[in-house]
From TrEMBL:
Pathway: Protein modification; protein glycosylation. One of its GO terms (cellular component) is endoplasmic reticulum membrane. The keyword rRNA processing does not apply. It comes from Triticum aestivum (Wheat). Its EC number is 2.4.1.-. It holds the Pfam family Alg6_Alg8. Belongs to the ALG6/ALG8 glucosyltransferase family. This is Alpha-1,3-glucosyltransferase.
Length: 511
C-alpha cells in the first residue's frame, strides 16, 4: 500500500523541530532604532552639562586635551606629534595615546576646521570649546553597530546554551548601549572611549560569529587607539590560541592570525617605522612610568593598600614596575589557562572580564576611568549574570563619584543611575533569572551598599577633617575595592566551573 503523499503545507513534527538548533532572525529594525534613539538622546542630554576642566585654566581638563590633539595633528607633521617642539609643548597635554587615536583627532580636526577654524587654530585656541558632536558621531558610527552585531551573534550562537537566551535581546542591547559609566565619561567628562571599546566589542562579536581574522584586526585597531585595550589581550590571545590548537593545522591557523595582527600594526604605525628613534618616541609617550604607580584615589590594590604600605616611598619605579607586572600576570593567568585548555564563547566572555579586572586591580598607573574596561564584558554577560552586572555597574559608577563631583555632573550622575535602575528592573528585564542569592549573603552585601548610599550624601554635605582632607574619597575607594575583589574571585570561579558543566559552555562546534 502506497504511503500518503505529505502535504507541502503540513506542520513539521514537533519532536523533530524541538531538536533543531535555534537560529534567530535579525532583530527587528524598528526596535533597534528605538533603543538606539533613546541611547543617543541620553548622550545628547548629558552633553549639555559641564565637562572636565571647564573654566579651569591653564589646562582646562580632558575636554581641552582632546581639542589640543586635534590642533596638533591638523597643523603639524606626524613626525612632530609625539616630540617636544616649539609648537608642541609636551607639558601642555602632550599626545599620549597610540597613532590610531592621533589619526582620529586629525579626522575630527579636518571636519571642525571646515566650519570653525578658530576652534583648532595652532597656539591660539587654548581653552575654547570643542563641538560635542564629535563624540556623539564616533559613538554612533563605532560603538552602536558593534553592540548590535554582538547581540545578534550572542543570540544566534546561544551563548550559555539555554533556550531562554532566545528572549531578552532588547534588554541586553539596552544594557550595553545605556551603560551609565560610559555615557558619563564620554559625553559628560569628555573622552572617546566609545571608539576603542566599540572596536573591542566588534572584535568580540567577530569571535562569537566565527570571524576570527576580522576579530584580530579589530582588536589590533582597538589597542592602537587606546593602549588600555591591552587589558583584554590575555583573553583574546588565550581563546584564539586555544581554538587554533584544537584545529587540524594549528600552526597555519596561528600564522594567519599573526599576519593579520602584524599587518594591522604595520599599517597604523607606518609613519613611525622609518627609524628606531621615531618608534621609541611614540612608545615612550604611551608608558608614562614617571607619574607613579597610581594617581588620585582609584579603587585598585596599590592605591587601597597604600594607606598601610607607602609603595611610592618604599620602592623605586623599577621595582614597582616589576611587582605590578608580576601581580597582574598572576591574576589573569588562571583565566588565560582555562581558555587555552577549554576555549568556549561563554568562557571567553568571562575571561575578558577576569583579564581586564586583573589589569585594573594590579597594573601600573591605573585611572578611575579604567573601570570602563571590565565593565564592558560585565555588560555583555548581563543575560547570563544579571545580578553581577547590576552590582558591578553600581559600584563602578560609585568608584567614579569624586571625579563626577569635580566635573559638576551630579545631576547627570543621578539621572543616568536612575534610568539604569528603571531599565534593569523593567518588566521585560532579566534580573530575576540569575542565580538565587541567600538571605545571609544579601545581608552581608547590604552593608557596603548602605555605606555607599550614606557616603553619597556625606561627600557633598560634610567637610572632612583638616588632617584627612581626602577621607571620604578613601572610604569610597575602600568600599569599591572590596566589592571588586569579591566580584573577580566569583567570576574566576565561574569561568573554571564551565569545565565541569559542559551544557553551560556555549558553542564548541566552531572549534
Amino acid at each position: 500500500m502506497a504511503k500518503p503523499k505529505k502535504s507541502r503545507n503540513s506542520a513539521p513534527d514537533p519532536s523533530v523541530a524541538a531538536q533543531l538548533p535555534w537560529r534567530p532572525s535579525a532583530p527587528p529594525l524598528a526596535t533597534f532604532l528605538l533603543i538606539s534613539f533613546a541611547a543617543l538622546l541620553l548622550r545628547a542630554l548629558v552633553s549639555v552639562g559641564p565637562y572636565s576642566g571647564q573654566g579651569a585654566a591653564p589646562k582646562f581638563g580632558d575636554y581641552e586635551a582632546q581639542r589640543h590633539w586635534m590642533e596638533l595633528t591638523l597643523h603639524l607633521p606626524s613626525s612632530d606629534w609625539y616630540r617636544n617642539t616649539s609648537d608642541n609643548d609636551l607639558a601642555y597635554w602632550g599626545l599620549d595615546y597610540p597613532p590610531l587615536s592621533a589619526y582620529q583627532s586629525r579626522l575630527h580636526a579636518h571636519l571642525i576646521n571646515a566650519s570653525l577654524p578658530d576652534a583648532v587654530a595652532l597656539r591660539s585656541s587654548r581653552g575654547k570649546l570643542l563641538m560635542r558632536w564629535t563624540v556623539l558621531s564616533s559613538d554612533l558610527m563605532v560603538f552602536f553597530p558593534a553592540a548590535l552585531w554582538f547581540v545578534w551573534a550572542y543570540m544566534k550562537d546561544g551563548v550559555g546554551g539555554s533556550g531562554e537566551r532566545r528572549e531578552g535581546w532588547t534588554w541586553l542591547l539596552a544594557m550595553v548601549l545605556l551603560n551609565p559609566c560610559l555615557v558619563l565619561i564620554d559625553h559628560g567628562h569628555f573622552q572617546y572611549n566609545c571608539i576603542s571599546l566599540g572596536l573591542t566589542l566588534g572584535a568580540i562579536a567577530g569571535i562569537l560569529s566565527r570571524n576570527e581574522l576580522v576579530a584580530a584586526a579589530l582588536f589590533s585597531l582597538a589597542i592602537n587607539h587606546k593602549q588600555m585595550s591591552m587589558y583584554f589581550a590575555p583573553a583574546f590571545f588565550g581563546h584564539l590560541i586555544g581554538k587554533c590548537l584544537k584545529r587540524k593545522y594549528p600552526i597555519v591557523e596561528i600564522m594567519k592570525l599573526g599576519f593579520v595582527v602584524l599587518g594591522t600594526f604595520a599599517l597604523v604605525w607606518w609613519p613611525y617605522l622609518h627609524s628606531y628613534e621615531a618608534a621609541m618616541q611614540v612608545i615612550s609617550r604611551l608608558a608614562p612610568f614617571e607619574r607613579g604607580i597610581y594617581e588620585d584615589y582609584v579603587a585598585n590594590f596599590w592605591c587601597t593598600t597604600s594607606v598601610l604600605i607607602k609603595w611610592k616611598r618604599l620602592y623605586a619605579i623599577k621595582s614597582l614596575k616589576l611587582m605590578s607586572l608580576s601581580a597582574t600576570i598572576l591574576a589573569f593567568l588562571p583565566s588565560f589557562i582555562q581558555q587555552v585548555k577549554s576555549p568556549s564563547n561563554l568562557g571567553f566572555l568571562y575571561s575578558l572580564l577576569n583579564s581586564s579586572f586583573s589589569f585594573y586591580l594590579f597594573s601600573y598607573q591605573v585611572h578611575e576611568k579604567s573601570i570602563l574596561l571590565p565593565l564592558l564584558p560585565a555588560s555583555l554577560l548581563a543575560l547570563h549574570e544579571p545580578h553581577l552586572h547590576g552590582w558591578f555597574t553600581y559600584y563602578a559608577l560609585f568608584s567614579m563619584y569624586p571625579l563626577i563631583c569635580r566635573d559638576q555632573l551630579l545631576l547627570q550622575y543621578i539621572a543616568v543611575l536612575g534610568l539604569f535602575v528603571l531599565i534593569y528592573y523593567s518588566p521585560g528585564g532579566n534580573y530575576g533569572k540569575g542565580m538565587k542569592i541567600s538571605s545571609g549573603t544579601m545581608a552581608v552585601l547590604s552593608l557596603p551598599l548602605l555605606c555607599s548610599i550614606l557616603l553619597h550624601t556625606m561627600y557633598l554635605q560634610i567637610e572632612p577633617p583638616k588632617r584627612y582632607p581626602f577621607l571620604f574619597d578613601a572610604l569610597i575607594m575602600f568600599i569599591c575595592f572590596s566589592q571588586f575583589i569579591i566580584l573577580t574571585l566569583y567570576t574566576n570561579y565561574k569561568q573554571w566551573m564551565l569545565d565541569f558543566h559542559p551544557r553551560h559552555v556555549g558553542s564548541k562546534k566552531d572549534l
